[in-house]
Amino acid sequence: xxxxxxxxxxxxxxxxxxxxxxxxxxxxxxxxxxxxxxxxxxxxxxxxxxxxxxxxxxxxxxxxxxxxxxxxxxxxxxxxxxxxxxxxxxxxxxxxxxxxxxxxxxxxxxxxxxxxxxxxxxxxxxxxxxxxxxxxxxxxxxxxxxxxxxxxxxxxxxxxxxxxxxxxxxxxxxxxxxxxxxxxxxxxxxxxxxxxxxxxxxxxxxxxxxxxxxxxxxxxxxxxxxxxxxxxxxxxxxxxxxxxxxxxxxxxxxxxxxxxxxxxxxxxxxxxxxxxxxxxxxxxxxxxxxxxxxxxxxxxxxxxxxxxx
Amino acid sequence: xxxxxxxxxxxxxxxxxxxxxxxxxxxxxxxxxxxxxxxxxxxxxxxxxxxxxxxxxxxxxxxxxxxxxxxxxxxxxxxxxxxxxxxxxxxxxxxxxxxxxxxxxxxxxxxxxxxxxxxxxxxxxxxxxxxxxxxxxxxxxxxxxxxxxxxxxxxxxxxxxxxxxxxxxxxxxxxxxxxxxxxxxxxxxxxxxxxxxxxxxxxxxxxxxxxxxxxxxxxxxxxxxxxxxxxxxxxxxxxxxxxxxxxxxxxxxxxxxxxxxxxxxxxxxxxxxxxxxxxxxxxxxxxxxxxxxxxxxxxxxxxxxxxxx
Lengths: 309, 309
Prior knowledge:
2 copies of one chain form a homodimer.
Chain A: E1 3-9, E2 23-28, E3 31-35, H1 41-47, E4 55-59, H2 65-68, H3 71-80, E5 87-91, H4 93-100, E6 115-119, E7 125-129, E8 133-139, E9 147-153, E10 159-160, H5 162-165, H6 172-179, E11 184-185, E12 191-192, H7 194-197, E13 198-199, E14 206-210, H8 220-223, E15 228-232, H9 240-246, H10 251-261, E16 265-269, H11 279-288, E17 292-294, E18 300-302
Parallel strand pairs in A: 3-4, 4-5, 5-6, 14-15, 15-16, 16-17
Antiparallel strand pairs in A: 1-2, 1-18, 2-3, 7-8, 8-9, 9-14, 10-13, 11-12
Helix pairs in contact in A: 10-11
């Protein structure tokens, strides 16, 4: 089953000719979760052949333009394309006000589909759940209200070893019990231990998104051990003053977060337009956390399944 | 002196991976006039190396998203880049309301520069003038209020033939009179005819922008004889029903307008996403008006100066 991230944009406030503003798409078993929606997101979705119709949930970290100005065009296009499915938007409260206002740039009242708004609460908490996935939001620290997200695949129940249970003529209730980690006493008084009759499924995968924010120690336990951590790295550490002033993170600091949180892989992005070459940012982060990679438009990272032992 | 048009976007409502929504930049002697500002305009401006700081006037034809959703990002970037110069926006009244509203996506009150709004009046009229150029707006017919624009270079005064006037010891007032087309009687009673002492300057150039609109006979006298006519051509004529319904023009009709208005060159754009190849649209228009070309992102057309006879 797919658990993959596609990067659509990697610029900070000022886009460049080659770097669109922030937008990511997480594909969880074929369901697409859009995270931020900078200007041009719909064009990037087209470019990288991401199906509009599979996006039912949009998560907006904060209301700086480079993270949400693409939403007007995208929501309009959804309507033009005849979308009928509800669209859920998880965002700071003000986005709902902008979109529902009489002076909104778009007239969502006349769209063919319904938009359901979910405003971020002012605390760490689960904001989304389905059969396969949960999403937690957690507050970041930026010039305005800003949120990070952790997407966690749910642990699938172990698979029954059919050949081994065949001899026991078990009821469905008993089989479910084994799958759920319980042991079963058969009619002939035999204790079937669940670990002998099931094969663990793969470990659930996880993706954390942290942008925009200052360096924040308190997010480390939240993103601990995730498979893939995206963290903004707007500046080199030589620009630490500028980073502090604008409440951004340096590449070095992003590396430190990844290292302390013991994540598997770090993806850095949200690069200042001042950097023509991004190699120095990569090197700086890799010094702290070697398994760092640079985000770029069109990059897709398949998070691989890992066997449970 | 430059009089050139750069096309930034050519899609209709739904952009494609290769076609951004509408935006044009007219360069008149180094001053840049942005016409419409679809999503991603600032990215296209960067891509085609158009200097942000030279844009002081933005003309918006109508408030469908594909013609103005790029303005939020562009105005924000102007502020981030430290712009100080006033920016003039010529647009339907509602744009001012959107941008000044408490729920506006951008906070223009805190920008470093001033935005001066000019709302389109409900009639044909001049909306801009400087030493080199005038701009007229004229109503189009679309699903909402929509406007076309004609940009006309002013006729420069003829040049004095210095060698010929040298012998007459003329005053500045007399020289100005000759340049303005008057004749001069010298102290020794000699009549100097202006046409003998001046060389006409080149013909003024003109560019007309017509998008979005149904086929409109009444615009023909307005765009008569322009050097370059941009006319939307959203559909092939086989889709005439769809064009009528959505109040757009077909490629054939755009060609007819150009032919009847006797323009020098026709540029068609605003193509429906349904057309992968645009050649049929070009051919259809060329049947009516051979000197038609297709708009594409990055196309620059230098309108050449033509000698007055």
